[in-house]
Amino acid sequence: MIFSDIKYLGHASLYLETDEVSIVTDPWFSKTGAYESSWFQYPDNTDIDFKWVDGLDYVCISHEHQDHCDIGFLKNLNPSTKIVTANFINKRYVNLLKDNLVNEIIEVDDRTTFDLGGVKYTPMIQIPMGQEDSAMIFEFGDEVIMNFNDMKPSQNDIDWIKDKFDVTYLLKQFSGASWYPLIYDYDDEKMYDLCRDKRLFKYQVILNVINELNPKFYIPFAGPPCLLRDETYHINFLEENTFPNEADIYNFFKENHPKISEKFMVLMPGDSVDDDWKHNLQHECFTDKELYLKKYKDRRELIIKEASNRIEKVNHSLLKKSIKYFYPLLRSAPRLCENIGGSILFNISGDYEEKIILDFLNNKVKLLNDDEYFYEFDIEGKWLNHILEKQMTWEEFFLTLNFKARRKPDLYNEHLMAFLKLADPISYKEYEDFHFDELEEETFNLTYNGKDYKCQKYCPHARGDMSKGKIVDNKLVCPTHNWKFSLPDGQCITNKSKLIIEAA
372: buried, middle or exposed (CB in 10 Å: 19+, 13-18, 0-12)? Predict the structure, then answer.
């Protein structure tokens, strides 16, 4: 028994059809792109055949990001179409859907199977808390579609899947979806090295997951946006960047892992999946990227201009508005603020220039006055105002890449990012409970330099199984996200955290 049609719709969207039901995943078809027209679909998928829309039975959505949850598309669905998603603890995303749609919304518990008219749907929710995403597993007869989209599975997740499913089609993000390291003030050589390393790590993750799950096919998925704003357009053409396309990853695997590359199925929007497929690598977006993007940019010029005009310019101080926005958040999250451990600076540019300090240890928002800070953002006033007015979340703004940043020391501060991205007292409480109360008690034995140690089993970041990590250059490397912990003290060199290691 097989699906009558599996069609790739671009980015992270699939169309699934049987004789009884039709399903679409993670729609993103808007000609306005995403994040105030900072991201656009690559390749362009806005002209595919949408004849199936009126009769659509279900839309399954993995998470709230605009490139996976196209509210404009959802608003135009037939009211009878049902929206299905994972049952996240945080209801911000579901409330967004309820506020905008008349359609029935079905929330399915983690690792619980729900029947979609004969197609079995099972969500798998990603941890850590506050970074809601979910994988989607679809079963129909003997076929299993393992759709990870952007989700970063832990080893425990992989082991659970291996025990439950024989995967036919594996779909997983292979390209970057982050502002790091592109917005940081690194010299060209360091930027090149960091981008290359991040790209290679992404490829290694894909290799590991394919080796673990042994799917019949791997479909490069949820891959890169293109950046068509003047301010960020150059990023598309960096010699080495974090946004490889489908041709890039296929050619890498063909050269370095030829047997694995035989599993690759490279598709263009509108292509159907079947056993007689051929790699669709001759499209202009792969063969002449510069020309393709130039024409694409020209087509979206007016849309980008309109999006820019919607963001109100400011010619006055944003201090009072910043105090009103940040002060309640600071007071609501004492443990989170303590673990952030200092102050950050907003260098505000534009029609009114000023420097605002956000002091997490003293619960203050004020103008800079000989303050020490460990992180600084260069941000145009209109963008900051857009956030303070709650027209855009911090994470959405970060994804625009319309800012610069510096950090001292040059380490990832997960708690700072959580504070900005969550920006909600209820979410802070959930985050604090997860990260600071539910400490992992399970340990494993580790031998290092002839000595025996008892080591915290799960990574403090996303609960990766450290017992399955490798020791490289005197560092224990997490198998989930490549975070490195020095041995034998357990200090993380990737961010401000620590792995508990004690002499056995």
Answer: exposed
- Which two tokens mark 2? 């097989």
Pairing of strands 13-17, 5-10: antiparallel
pLDDT in tens, 36-79: 999 999 999 999 989 889 999 999 999 999 999 999 999 999 99
- Could you tell me what percent of the chain has a pLDDT over 70? 96
CA of 128: how far to CAs of 418, 464, 497, in Å?
11, 10, 14
How many CB atoms sit inside 10 A of residue 442's CB? 9
Distance (Å, whole) CA 460 – CA 427: 18
Q: Torsion angle, CA of 87/91/93/96, rounded to 10 degrees?
A: 120
Is the full-model pTM beyond 0.90?
no
Residue 244 preceded by cis peptide, ω within 30: no
How far, in Å, CA of 347 to CA of 354, rounded?
Answer: 6
pLDDT band at 440 (very low <50, low <70, confident <90, very high): low
User: Residue 91: what are its φ and ψ, rounded to 5°?
Assistant: -100, 10
Q: What is the pLDDT of residue 442?
A: 79
CATH for 439-503? 2.102.10.10
Q: At what angle do helices 301-310 and 289-299 cross, to 10 degrees?
A: 60
The 10 Å Cβ neighbour count of residue 398 is: 20
pLDDT at 430: 82
What is the predicted pLDDT for the residue at 462?
A: 66
Q: What distance lies between CA 57 and its chain's CA centroid?
A: 27
Residue 13, token pair as written in the block: 């969207």
The 10 Å Cβ neighbour count of residue 390 is 9
Q: Determine whether 216 is exposed, middle or buried from the number of CB atoms within 10 Å of its CB (0-12, 13-18, 19+).
A: middle
Residue 436 is classified by DSSP as I
Evaluate whether 44 touches 9 at the Cβ level (below 8 Å): no
CATH architecture of 319-426: 2-Layer Sandwich (3.30)
* Among candidate residues 383, 401, 400, the one with its CA nearest the CA of residue 391: 383
Q: Token pair for residue 46?
A: 């806005």
CA distance 304 to 400: 12
Whether 92 contacts 424, CB under 8 Å: yes
- Matching residue, tokens 């989607």: 136
Tens of pLDDT, residue by residue over 84-100, are 999 998 888 899 999 99
- Give the domain ranges of the chain: 5-303, 319-426, 439-503
The DSSP secondary-structure symbol of 88 reads -
Sign of the torsion angle spanned by Cα atoms 100, 107, 49, 8: positive
Give Cβ neighbours of residue 454 (< 8 Å, ≥ 6 apart): 443, 444, 445, 446, 501, 502, 503, 504
End-to-end Cα spacing for the chain: 54
Q: Does residue 79 have a cis peptide bond before it, meaning omega lies within 30 degrees of 0?
A: no
Q: What is the DSSP letter of 478?
A: P
Q: Which fold has domain 5-303?
A: Metallo-beta-lactamase; Chain A (3.60.15)
